[in-house]
């Protein structure tokens, strides 16, 4: 019995360490009528937390924008939505310093047709990854760690949007507005 519990705990721990883009390899599960217009990523108040490697705002904004475009560019819904993201803080302990990788950002969703925000208050999304053997091997360089955190932020943003679709009715149902399909202007 004890071995079964240890095995279950190990499997759950490994599942939590899965690559943030592993789900992108399968078929696309529509997000209602969502089609990404563009993502606007800024970092005007970026804070480095604790003992960390230095990463400039331009690096963070480029990595987060790329991760958002990759993840949300897959959806071919009938309405344009835009994502506004402000990268707020990060922590990337240098080699040999214990700690966790972390990235925090605030997200807003803009409905292009309605010309309004879907969320009046920005959503704070925080990505925290332990520096265990799997991550340190998979993300040895600073660029790899930045990419890993940016992809994690994009994945958690999608999870939040799916939750809001279910609980608040955001994005309608898949195919709901297909007759009025539009081509979103992409930057």
Structure description:
The protein is built from four helices and six strands, in the order αββαββββαα. It is an alpha/beta fold and 187 residues long. α2 packs across α4 (142-168). Keywords: Signal.
Short description:
This protein is α/β, with parallel strands linked by helices. It is built from 4 helices and 6 strands.
What are the main properties of this structure?
single chain, 187 residues, alpha/beta, Double Stranded RNA Binding Domain, 6-stranded mixed beta sheet, 4 helices, 6 strands, 34% helix, 25% strand, globular, disordered N terminus
Instruction: State the share of residues found in helices, binned by percent.
Output: 25-40%
Order of helices and strands: HEEHEEEEHH
Q: How many structurally independent domains? A: 1
- From the helix content, strand content and strand pairing, which structural class follows? alpha/beta
CATH topology: Double Stranded RNA Binding Domain
Strand content: 15-25%
Work out the radius of gyration: 18 Å
Sheet with the most strands, sense and barrel status: 6 strands, mixed
> What is the CATH architecture term?
2-Layer Sandwich
Whole-number mean pLDDT: 83
Query: What's the quaternary structure here?
Result: single chain
Distance between the termini: 56 Å
How many individual helices? 4
Number of strands: 6
Q: Sum up the overall morphology in one term.
A: globular
The low-pLDDT segments are: 1-17
The CATH C-level name is: Alpha Beta
Keywords: Signal
Organism: Citreimonas salinaria
Protein name: Lipoprotein
């Amino acid at each position: 019995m004890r071995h079964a519990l240890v095995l279950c705990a190990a499997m759950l721990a490994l599942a939590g360490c899965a690559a943030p883009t592993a789900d992108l390899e399968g078929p696309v599960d529509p997000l209602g009528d969502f089609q990404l217009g563009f993502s606007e990523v800024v970092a005007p108040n970026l804070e480095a937390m604790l003992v960390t490697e230095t990463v400039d705002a331009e690096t963070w904004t480029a990595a987060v924008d790329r991760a958002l475009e990759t993840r949300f560019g897959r959806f071919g819904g009938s309405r344009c939505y835009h994502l506004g993201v402000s990268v707020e803080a990060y922590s990337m302990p240098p080699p040999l310093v214990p700690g966790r990788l972390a990235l925090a950002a605030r997200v807003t969703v803009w409905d292009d047709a309605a010309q309004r925000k879907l969320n009046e208050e920005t959503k704070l999304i925080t990505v925290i990854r332990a520096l265990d053997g799997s991550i340190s091997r998979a993300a040895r360089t600073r660029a790899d760690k930045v990419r890993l955190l940016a992809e994690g932020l994009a994945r958690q943003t999608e999870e939040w949007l799916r939750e809001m679709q279910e609980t608040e009715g955001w994005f309608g149902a898949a195919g709901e507005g297909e007759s009025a399909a539009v081509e979103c202007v992409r930057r």
